[in-house]
Write a structure and sequence with these properties.
heterodimer, A: mainly alpha, MetI-like fold, flat, B: alpha/beta, six-stranded mixed β-sheet, four-stranded antiparallel β-sheet, globular, ATP binding (chain B)
């Protein structure tokens, strides 16, 4: 019998790999595309150097007052530096700022732990810690319960407030929205209709309207004399708003889990909650990861809307700084650019974290 | 129509007893007066054209499908509308699916230990020992720490069989276990199933593998249009069909 021998692999021809073929294929494939490439090149050459000059080379970096900004052709970063404490911590007493740092370090530590811990420990340790974090942070920041100096929520503010409000809302919204999504798929008409009403209400009403309801209308429903903290109301509103969106994200994930997975779980005799938590939830999270992140980012950016109802988050602190009588030199470009860059860095980091989670969860083609 | 039916009606030791089972999808009558009794250790092959209700009937046995009329008793437990009752029956019945339905987010070992740990409340060490035992039986112990997506179709289906066996079921249901496999992988799965049959497992297998039916089946059931048309030992079914419908079916599947 004749023996079958597969043909040996040959190297790819020289005209399909390397820099020149790449340039030819991607930048100059046709005359029109070459023209566009050159036009863009010309645009970058004219725009980038002056931009960098304004941002860095001619910018004013040192000083403490607006008079230090002598070079009018450059950005006045002195403004941002002088106000940086307020931008980050609002009017939180500066000697107590370590408490904010403690909360942020705890948040980062738990995120890292949920990556590094062994799979078996991860669910048992990281999830309860995540759920405890908002309450831990409130106790620390407030201080009165554990014998530290009391800091009223009126003084909480700045970018760290944006971060902590977003984190606290996401942490509570995660399980809540999963339950809502589960309720929406339920066979029980009562549970289903309650879930649908909640989801559609919080998704259908603009977030600003929800904030106003939370700050103006909600107190009308509380018994007279009770004073529910403004920040607490905002937290609740953000959580419910987030839950409405996330529930729909989860619903999409539920629909993408093949029915065979439910049948296999059923045929093993798993109960409803075992099936939901052990088989369905992990797959739903994996499928929904990109959309979960998109919702996180949206919520995080929406925390700047809180300036409308007088919460001193980063954007409203910036506006306060811009309106300060000592800084009336027109620094809004620097101020808003700084806010934009800080938010962008955070959102981009979240993207990186999310894609690394996606890779970690992707068990389909790992060889 | 059913030949063994009259003799076995008195025998209540049968492990599966289906009486006058009827099922509708909306107005569509998918299962019509199904009567079937399976003895412990019996190996049954169910065949028939697609849409004949053979999968639906099989899936009724572990309540993946509901039925509207008739009764079904598995291992002495009658199927009623009750979650505990259904879960009790499912613990006795293992099922292997056409598309394997392994859990993609769990390793092979975790796929196998999930049932023993969470349903049978076995300690993890014991569950893992059982899992490795069955992985060796289906000849892929070296794949234990991989994920299902890294295995070939034939290997995945053998894992699926092992996953069911870990629950130590009384009955194994197979719903077209080789229909989604490449030709070269069908044999490795059938070999495992033949071995299982030789060990005396009660098996009910929906398949188009007539060679397998001839080799291991005690009884072949032919279904069409929601009814059991014929049932008999394999030799009789293949060599001496009683109805024109079965004759046509056999000529179509054996003629190429």
């Amino acid at each position: 019998m004749k023996e079958f021998k597969p043909l040996p692999d040959k190297p790819a021809p020289a005209d399909v790999v390397g820099v020149i073929p790449w340039l030819k294929d991607n930048l100059f494939p046709t005359p029109l595309n070459s023209l566009v490439t050159l036009a863009l090149l010309a645009f970058f050459v004219t725009v980038i150097p002056p931009l960098f000059d304004w941002l860095f080379f001619s910018a004013n970096w040192s000083g403490t007052t607006q008079d230090a900004c002598t070079n009018k052709d450059g950005a006045c970063w002195v403004f941002v530096i002088a106000w940086s404490k307020q931008f980050f911590y609002g009017s939180y007493p500066i000697e107590e700022v370590w408490r904010i740092h403690t909360c942020l370090i705890a948040l980062v530590a738990i995120i890292i732990a949920s990556f590094k811990l062994h799979k078996d420990l991860r669910n048992k340790v990281a999830i309860p810690l995540f759920l405890l974090l908002p309450f831990f942070s409130i106790v620390i920041l407030d201080g009165s319960l554990i014998g530290l100096a009391y800091v009223s929520t009126d003084y909480w503010g700045g970018f760290t407030l944006n971060v902590m409000l977003a984190a606290a809302s996401i942490i509570v919204a995660f399980p809540l929205s999963f339950l809502w999504a589960l309720g929406r798929r339920s066979d029980m008409p009562f549970i289903r209709s309650v879930s649908v009403i909640l989801i559609e209400f919080f998704r259908g009403v603009p977030v600003l309207a929800l904030f106003f309801m939370g700050s103006v209308m909600l107190p009308l429903f509380f018994p007279e004399g009770t004073n529910v903290d403004k920040l607490l109301r905002v937290w609740i509103v953000l959580t419910l708003f987030m839950s409405g969106y996330m529930a729909e994200v989860f619903r999409g994930g539920f629909q993408a889990v093949p029915s065979g997975q439910y049948e296999a779980a059923d045929s093993l005799g798993l109960g409803f909650w075992q099936k939901t938590l052990l088989i369905v939830l992990p797959q739903v999270i994996k499928i929904s990861m990109p959309n979960i992140l998109a919702t996180f980012v949206m919520l995080f950016k929406n925390t700047t809307f809180l300036l409308i109802i007088g919460i001193f988050e980063m954007l409203s602190t910036t506006q306060t700084a811009l309106a300060n009588s000592n800084w009336l030199g027109g620094h809004s470009t620097e101020g808003y650019l700084f806010v934009a860059v800080v938010f962008w860095i955070c959102c981009f980091s979240m993207s990186m974290i999310s894609s690394s989670i996606e890779r970690k969860l992707d068990t389909s083609h790992r060889n | 129509m059913s030949i063994n039916h009259e003799q076995s009606i008195e025998n209540n030791d049968d492990i599966i007893i289906i009486k006058d089972l009827n099922k509708w999808y909306g107005d569509f009558h998918v299962l019509k007066d199904i009567n079937l009794r399976v003895k412990k250790g019996e190996r049954i092959v169910v065949c028939g054209p697609s849409g004949s209700g053979k999968s639906t009937m099989t899936r009724c046995i572990n309540r993946l499908e509901e039925f509207q009329r008739g009764s079904l008793t598995v291992n002495g437990v009658e199927m009623i509308e009750d979650v505990k009752n259904i879960e009790a029956i499912r613990r006795e019945v293992g099922m292997v699916f056409q598309h394997f339905n392994l859990f993609p987010h769990l390793t092979i070992l975790e796929n196998l230990t999930l049932g023993p740990i969470w349903v049978q409340k076995k300690p993890k060490k014991e569950a893992e020992a059982i899992a490795m035992k069955y992985l060796e039986r289906v000849k892929i112990p070296d794949q234990a720490l991989k994920f299902p997506g890294q295995l070939s179709g034939g290997q995945q289906q053998r894992v699926a069989i092992a996953r069911s066996l870990c629950m130590n079921p009384e009955i194994m249901l197979f719903d077209e276990p080789t229909s989604a496999l490449d030709p070269e992988m069908i044999k490795e799965v059938l070999d495992v199933m033949v071995e299982l049959a030789d060990e005396g497992m009660t098996m009910l297998c929906v398949t188009h593998e007539m060679g397998f039916a001839k080799k291991v089946a005690d009884r072949v059931i032919f279904m069409d249009a929601g009814e059991i048309v014929e049932q008999n030992i394999p030799e009789e079914i293949f060599n001496n069909p009683q109805t024109d419908r079965l004759q046509l079916f056999l000529s179509q599947i054996l003629d190429h």
